[in-house]
Each structure stands twice: as C-alpha cells, then as structure tokens.
Automatic annotation (TrEMBL):
It holds the Pfam family SLT. InterPro entries: Lysozyme-like_dom_sf, Transglycosylase_SLT_dom_1. It comes from the Bacteria. This is Lytic transglycosylase catalytic. The lineage of its organism: Bacteria, Thermotogati, Thermotogota, Thermotogae, Petrotogales. It comes from Petrotoga mobilis (strain DSM 10674 / SJ95). Residues 79-156 form the Transglycosylase SLT domain.
Amino acid sequence: MKSFVLLAIFIFLPILFFSYYEVYDYFFMKPNTYFEYNSNSNGEFGIEFYSINKYPIMDSNKLLESVWSQPRTLIGGQMVVESSNYTHAISSSKAMGLLQLKNPTGVDLHVYNLFDPYDNLKGALEYHGYLRRLFDDERLQIIAYHDGPTAVMAGKVSPGGEAYYEKVKRAQQNYSNSKIYSPYFIGGRVFYFPEGEEDRINTDFEAGLAYRKFEIYGNVGLELPLKQIQESDFTNIKTDYGYTFLYVPRTNFGFGIEGKTVPDDVVFRIGLPWQNFILKGPENPELIYKHELTDNWTTKILINADTLLLSSYFSIYNLDLFMGYEIYQTSINLGFRLAF
C-alpha cells in the first residue's frame, strides 16, 4: 500500500494534472505537451508536465465584420495562411498574431496589442491599405506583405513571395467561416525536498487562459511530509492557492494583481515574449529577466527573498537543456524540457 501511494505521488499525479514551466511564458509557446525535469546539487528534484492548447473565442466572420477596405475573404484566407487563425502565433522571424505583424511594423501602425485579434486585424488592414496605395496591384500588394515593400519596389520579387501570393489566393477561394483560437494551459509539478526527518513533497497544479488583452492564471498546491505519506497519514496536509490577473494594453506591457483571497502583489510584465522583465511586489518581491540571445540560447535571472538564480537554456529541436547556478544555496541546477 505504501509503495502504491508513493508511486501515485511521483508518477500518476503529474501525468494526470500536468505541470508548469514559467507560467508567464506559456501563452507564447507553441501549443504542445511538455515534460520537464529539474534537479540541483543539494539533492532536490522535480518533474513537470504541462499542456498548452487552443480554445475558440469567436467566429472568423464576426471578426471580419469590421473589414471594409479589403475583400473579407482575402483577409480571412490570409489569416489561415499566416497563423491558422491562432491569436498568439509567433513565427521564427518574430512576427506575431493572426496576421503576423512584426513589432516595429505594429509600432509604426499604432497597433496596441498584436495578440489581440481586433488590434492585429486593424494593423494588417492599415498595412494592406498602404501597400495598395503604393503598388495599385493586388498581386504586388500581397507579395509585398510577405517580402516587404522595399524589395518589391526594387523589382526583387522572391520565389517565396510568389508562392505566398498563390497560397493566399487559394485560401481566399476556399474561405469559409471558422473559429478564431486563443491559448489556455493546464499543468502541474511534483518536487522533492530532502530535509532529513522533514523530507517533503510539494505538488502544484495550475491553469490559465488568454482572452484578447486579459490573461488569467490560477494554482492550487499541496505540501506533503514524506514521513506522513509513508505512513498513509493524510490528516495534516498543507494547502496553498493563488491567482494572477493581467491586463495587457500593449504588446510589450502588461500589469495586474496576484494573491490569494485579496491581492498581495502588483505584477508588471515589460518587454516582448523573447526578452522581458517580470516585476512583483511589495508582499513577495521578485524580479525575473529573460533574454533570448539566439534562436537556440536564452538566458534568465530570477531574484527573490530566497533565490538568486543565474541560468541558461539551450534548445535543440524539441529538447531544451537547462543549466544554472543558485547563489544563495551555492547549488548547481541541471534539467531538461521535452516537447512531444
């Protein structure tokens, strides 16, 4: 019986309830299921599962009701080509949202939040209008959306641009009303902390969703002394829970509150998904800074009352390798994350 309980805690709980990475990054990861393992030189280790998925927020025809300057079927088809109707799509070139606008273009067009479908659509329509005035030719207009107007004005139409035009026109012909999707996640983790007779296991289960300019996160946690688990004694289990609400008026800025029953902290996220600061306080002050140096290498710093962690992530296909040094505990942290 004791062996079965331990097996359930270490294996079945994380599989059933999943796990979390850095929750403020979840909505900007590719929808997938992830497994993560972390450990340090002090003997602590944890396993995590989390799943990032899509849910429908509206019909594409409803969104396209605001389109008057371009054929609605053209824009509807282009959304399918660019993002498969997914509001939080991010390309390898850092184009974002339903119609894949880059941040400098969004700033020039006064787009507030590229992950809000209405804001992204507004920016794309203004960009199409500019390109139509520039070329007065639908083919060149669509190619310039892909290749950039400077290249097309110079007469440098790429094979990729021609293929993009053909793909968009086919999607326009085949357009029909479909769903627009945004992300949600469910996850959980199990961590083991060796503390002599007070060895304990912590579990956390989290979920969240994004809707236009709002992000909602929630979590429930359990602290289980290992000795009580071995004795099948579950009468004195500590529980924890919390929530975070973020309002994101700009692509690179969001703010909100975090707490349990009443808010304890104010939260700020400053920057783009691949380079940003997370600031919290005053009750539980914390600073997280993440910087994606290349497509395969990201650095991260986490500072709070108990932790000063310097770390890096190296990405190889669907595998991320994690390495860090925790200064307060003088421990080396190693781990990996696998997407499947």
